[in-house]
Design brief:
Blueprint lengths: L6 E8 L2 E9 L5 E10 L2 H60 L1
Antiparallel strand pairs: 1-2, 2-3
Length: about 100
């Protein structure tokens, strides 16, 4: 795996042929296999599968991150609107209580 990448792929030879794995770096020393394919006839085939799958995997990850970001933004906006509505209601209640005290 190259330095600085969270996702990468690696190609290894197994007893069934060539194996390509999409791996995610958890820590500087630990990696987790996210997706793999085994039994390919040639190293070039495994390399091509790894490159192609990594691109689509990263694109899907970007889309997921974008959707989650939009959800967080919307949730923050709703929370802010609720906070403002509660503050406005509290101010109205305070003003109403003040007006009733003056009478």
């Amino acid at each position: 795996m190259s330095k600085g990448k969270k996702y990468d792929f690696r190609v290894t030879e197994s007893s069934k042929g060539w194996k390509a794995e999409i791996v995610r770096r958890m820590t500087s020393t630990k990696t987790v296999v996210s997706k793999f394919r085994d039994g390919m006839a040639t190293e070039a085939e495994a390399q091509a599968w790894g490159e192609e799958t990594l691109k689509s995997f990263l694109q899907a990850q970007v889309e997921r991150n974008k959707q989650q970001s939009e959800k967080r933004t919307l949730a923050a906006k709703v929370a802010e609107e609720k906070r403002l509505a509660a503050a406005l209601a509290a101010e109205r209640n305070y003003d109403a209580a003040e007006d009733s005290d003056e009478e």
